[in-house]
Design a protein that fits this description.
The protein is of the alpha+beta class and 101 residues long. The chain is 67% helix and 13% strand. It contains four helices and three strands. A three-stranded antiparallel sheet has the order 1-2-3, covered by helices on one side. α2 runs antiparallel to α3 (71-88). It is extended.
Length: 101
């Protein structure tokens, strides 16, 4: 059964998803992908210094009632950066494919 907290987070996720869906995918390429990646790395480094311990590991950042695991946004940022880098080097992909074969 869903409680009020889960419904609140569901609403937040739906709004965030709708906002992200309205941004054209080309908006994630170039400098934006690099900035998102740098932001993700910054969150990971902050965890070393001001991270909260949960379940025996220091992997949470918290601001008031909000707590996040910085590794999750860092994963998304890494995928976006790699996709942007590969999209900018389309001619090199043929050489990469032959290397992988």
């Amino acid at each position: 059964m869903l409680d009020v907290r889960q419904i609140r987070w569901l609403g937040f996720a739906l709004v965030a998803g709708a906002i992200v869906a309205t941004v054209p995918y080309r908006g994630y390429q170039g400098k934006s992908a690099g900035l998102l990646y740098a932001f993700g790395l910054m969150l990971l480094v902050l965890t070393l210094f001001i991270g909260h311990t949960g379940l025996g590991a220091q992997r949470w950042l918290g601001w008031g009632p909000l707590k996040i695991q910085p590794s999750e946004p860092a994963k998304v940022a890494t995928v976006l950066l790699l996709a942007s880098l590969l999209a900018n080097r389309k001619q090199d992909l043929t050489e990469l494919r032959t290397l992988v074969k």
